[in-house]
Amino acid sequence: MRLNKICIIPALGKNVYSPKGDLESWGGSTLLEWKISQAKEANVFDKIIISSPSSKVISLAKKKKIHFIKRNDKDNLDKLYRDTAKKFKNSTIVFLSVTFPFISPLIIKNFLSEYAKSDQKSGFTYIKKNEYYYYKNKPLNFNIDQYIKSRRDIPFVKKIVPGIIAFNSNNFIKNKNIFQSKNFFHKIKWLDSLEVNTPIDLNIFNLLILEYFKKKN
To answer: Which CATH class is domain 4-125+161-216?
Structure first.
């Protein structure tokens, strides 16, 4: 059975990095419009939907003729996933985060193509980190009883980058978690993994748009 591919773009009218939230200026438009364009250009979705509690965001969705779901501003991430899965059964749900502006249409397209072939129920973008990691003062990926190794030689860690998260809606309803015992992982590059978290990020990242377009072309 073919599953519909439903793209969900969560968006806010204001957040920690800007009083304009995802309507902050970016690349000649806004962060939200930029992500909508990327989702459309990927040309892999049966439906693109904006999910937001903000009337300003909903107004933009109407103007752009994009489907929308108005959610409660007190809903947490788990409820957002649960409500979406229940609303779109028998579907592949793909969340695209507005705060990752360098996740290109090609990355989205390749992600979905490889995810479909993997037969896994959940999928995530990630970056490879060859670094020394400690947890509760204990080493995670190296042995302190051995001679020190170059970072290139220690086991790498996968850092989940929530620029793209995909899951089978029926499986989520059953297991109540996007993370499974086995998952699909799609590696991306450092530039692709950059997230807008602060007002300073917006200024710095705008300087990187030219590099983004070089990669795109």
So the answer is: alpha beta
